[in-house]
Amino acid sequence: MSPNKHREQPTNGFPPGFLWGAATSSYQVEGAAREDGRAPSIWDTFTAERGMDSGEEACDHYHRWPADADLMAQLGMNAYRFSLAWPRIVPDGTGAVNPAGLAHYDRMVDGLLERGITPVPTLYHWDLPQALQDRGGWTSRATADAFAAYAEVCLDALGDRVDTWLTVNEPWVVSVLGYRLGLHAPGEQDLRTSLLVAHHLLLAHGAATQRIRERRPAARVGIPLSLFPNYPVTDDPADAAAAWGSDGYTNRWFLDPVLRGRYPADTVELFEGLVGPLDWVRPGDLDLIGARPDFVGVNYYTRRRISAAPADGLPWRVLPAQPGVPVTDSGWEDVPEVFQDLLVRLHRDYDIPLLITENGGVWNAEPGPDGRVRDAGRVRALRAHLLALSRAVDAGAQVLGYLHWSLLDNLEWAEGYGQRFGLVHVDRATQRRTVKDSARYYAAVIAANRVVDDTDDLAGKA
Ligand code: FCB
User: Could you tell which of 254, 304, 412, 417 is best to mutate to test the pocket of ligand 1, judged by most ligand atoms within 8 Å of the CB?
Assistant: First the structure.
């Protein structure tokens, strides 16, 4: 039992050895899209086809990572979540390994360790090699096998120095935004296909977990899930039922197979009613998927407000922000208490260690005339979310660390560069980095290993 379990006074503190850091992903920050043998990914194709902002240059982190790692170290961070680009390492998706691609991550892992920063790589953060997409992408079961083989390459190259692995980032977002809503690569719009893809993503997670355990039994592995708590908009039992239905769709469809070895029965019934039998699930699949990981990666941003009125082919409707509730610059409700409830629920329902792999929001502050970036909204929200996190720890949730999204202002997928999530401001024209007030505040928290009050003189720190 955790010593924090029955504490009566809030400590605002965190366990010893807590991981403190920030997160990025390859396509969103690296740039160098055509260098050292990298092949195109589905996001290169998708952004080109739709004329969107692309990751061609992004934050040029591929070249600038040493300076970025220096910044992390100056801020006191002891962990960095980044992703390995499959199209750099196995450009064709299967087969030949590209040594130059692997060498990049090999150097980066060494460079992080030299600075006292624990590398936390994600194996898949959405940049599927286009060559695999041409052979069916995630609609093909073979892609999960290809992923397992790619994971082995990564493990063999980096597993002697990496002890915390993340498998497949946010299978809900990949399957729903990529295959049902058409908002993300590859831009399809079909519920049945999205469910097929979700199963293959879970299989990929299961296969990679198995490989990690075979090759690196001392390592720990987790899956980063986008978890959106669903709140009914009224006390009407119909809205409560709709919110539970939406919870099945967004959260339990992934939590239950990974942590309980089965899809949730109510959601199976709903989906089978809409698309027919989920006949791609083969014997043994749920054993592979359900070999519990060592922790769940929690990506938390906001809640969903649900009413029972059907919309878009599903028996509920997602409503916009509640008037009076604070929102970020992208209009998402900023509701830290929901974060606390989510963590306590995960602890209660699934009893699994948690690593916060993403949390943050859009505040588009720019440097003032004195050069300082006063992102007061992010400072306030960060403090409130860290307080919520410490309360969840006090309530017994076992939390391994907190990785803020994001280190840098970067390519926010289909939203482009207009949405700034970074602790560090990036000037698009010059690539100049500016540490924002929020990063200075975060550094003060990290140094204390507890939530400190906002400081008046943020400019003087770090
Ligand atoms: C998550 C993604 C991450 C970033 C944040 C804002 O869904 O995993 O790459 O875009 O949202």
Answer: 412
What pLDDT, on the 0 to 100 scale, is given for residue 457? 52
Question: Other CB atoms closer than 10 Å to residue 415's CB: what's the count?
Answer: 14
- Which residues' Cβ are closer than 6 Å to ligand 1? 25, 28, 169-170, 173, 226, 299, 358, 405, 412-413, 421
Consecutive sets of 10 residues in the chain, 462 residues long: mean pLDDT of each?
53 95 99 98 99 98 99 98 99 98 98 99 99 98 98 98 99 98 98 99 98 98 98 98 98 99 98 98 98 98 98 97 98 98 98 99 98 98 98 97 99 98 98 98 98 67 44
Q: What is the pLDDT of residue 10?
A: 79
- Give distance in angstroms: CA of 251 to centre of ligand 1: 16
Atom of ligand 1 nearest to the CA of 169: 8
Spell out the residues 6+ positions from residue 39 whose beta carbon is closer than 8 angstroms to its own: 87, 91, 92, 129, 130, 131
The pLDDT assigned to 352 comes to 98
Instruction: Give residue 412 CA to ligand 1 midpoint distance, Å.
Output: 7
Q: 270 CB contacts (<8 Å, ≥6 apart)?
A: 245, 248, 249, 315
Which residues belong to the active site? Answer: 170, 358
d(CA 430, CA 141): 43
pLDDT at 316: 98
Among 170, 357, 404, 411, name the best residue to mutate to test ligand 1's pocket (greatest count of ligand atoms within 8 A of Cβ): 170
Distance (Å) from CA 400 to ligand 1 centroid: 20
> By C-alpha distance, which of 238, 358, 376, 240 is closest to 300?
358
